[in-house]
Amino acid sequence: MLTQREHSLQELRFKLQSRDFEEHKIDTILQRLSESGLQSDDRYTESYIASRTERGSGPVRIRAELRERGIDEALIETYLEGYAELWPALLQRVHDAKFGTEPCTDRKTLVRKARFLQHRGFPGELIRQFLFD
């Protein structure tokens, strides 16, 4: 499973459970993988954030997805901090790819753009600064 991509401990646990491994064996396997460095939630988090930002996802969405995968909030915050200065440029890139670079003054279109950017996982304050300042 680890040869294709990084996995969080929780993902590996679910996969092993779905294959009917006994719970005590799962714990032993996961502990050995972590101790040997074959599995790392740190590496997984770093890789996941890099992958999602490349696809145009914002920090809110990435944080939620990592929580679903069992990653600790402190670890998420540590890695997302490294991207803090990149969010405005990423938001601009995502916006321009979808809507182009023409400014918009139509309220209905602004709301549609804001909803799209929010769905992509960008924080409301960043969206407001981008669209209304």
UniProtKB/TrEMBL annotation:
UniProt entry keywords in alphabetical sequence: Cytoplasm
Domain RecX second three-helical: 40-80
Domain RecX first three-helical: start-end pairs: 1-33
An individual GO BP term: regulation of DNA repair
Record's subcellular location: Cytoplasm
Endoplasmic reticulum as UniProt keyword: no
InterPro entries listed in its UniProt record: RecX_HTH_1st, RecX_HTH_2nd, RecX_HTH_3rd, Regulatory_RecX, WH-like_DNA-bd_sf
Record has Cytoplasm as a keyword: yes
GO cellular component, one term: cytoplasm
Residue ranges of every copy of the RecX third three-helical domain listed in the record: 90-131
Family: Belongs to the RecX family.
Annotated protein name in UniProt: Regulatory protein RecX
Native species: Candidatus Thiodiazotropha endolucinida
